[in-house]
Amino acid sequence: MPELAAAVADLLDVADRQPERPGVLPVVQAGDPVLRRTAAPYTGQLGDVLPRLLEAMRRTMHAAPGVGLAAPQIGIGLAIAVCEDAGVPDDPRDRGPLPYRVLVNPRYEPVGEDAPAPDGTDAGDAAFYEGCLSVAGWQAVVARPRHVRLTCRDEHGAPVQEVLSGWPARIVQHETDHLAGRLYLDRAETRSLATTENLLRHFGADPDPGRAARALGFELPDR
């Protein structure tokens, strides 16, 4: 077995032997250099270990809980991510469901006027509070394109090209950014930064960041 595949298999073996949360991997936190390196393209380095890794990533994502997880977040510098979100009906963030999927070597590009969004809504950015499993306990407002075209391969190596909108588009952008060594904080409005506790205490469960913008003194893009 190649060296990297053997190291990942050992990591998974240790996780499987945990008595409390078997198969759940520790999530690397901000400040670890692995989160700031560009992940290596996946070219089959893990062989038969890949399905085990993906299952462990999915289990870890659910346990956190979160809606996405990139391989660098568990200390593995490969361009692989998983994501899944049940969605929230009638949510102003357009939080439609995102079925479970694997992103291998993903990239994205905003969908602009030359390629109208499938739901007929405007192109441009949407700004909402965003968090990260690797920046535990904090959230900040990030403006991201509402619609993106995702290009990647799935876990079987099949090509994927899809236009995503709303919150699913945000998830894909967030996880793909991890693979380029970027955290959401790199794109965030820094005056919006808040602990999750303070966000709930002062602004409640309202996902619209307008009240926070007025109270904390930052501007939102035209929406």
Give a description of the structure.
This protein has 5 helices and 8 strands. The chain is an alpha+beta fold and 223 residues long. The chain has one domain (3-216): Peptide Deformylase, CATH 3.90.45. Strands 1-2-3-6-7 form a 5-stranded antiparallel β-sheet, with helices on both faces. A 3-stranded antiparallel β-sheet has the order 4-5-8. The termini are far apart. The mean pLDDT is 94.
- Helix tally equals 5
Shape: globular
Ranges where pLDDT stays below 50 over 5 or more residues in a row are none
Characterize the biggest β-sheet.
Answer: 5 strands, antiparallel
The SS-based structural class is alpha+beta
Helix content: 25-40%
EC number: 3.5.1.88
Pfam family, one: Pep_deformylase
GO biological process, one term: translation
Function: Removes the formyl group from the N-terminal Met of newly synthesized proteins. Requires at least a dipeptide for an efficient rate of reaction. N-terminal L-methionine is a prerequisite for activity but the enzyme has broad specificity at other positions.
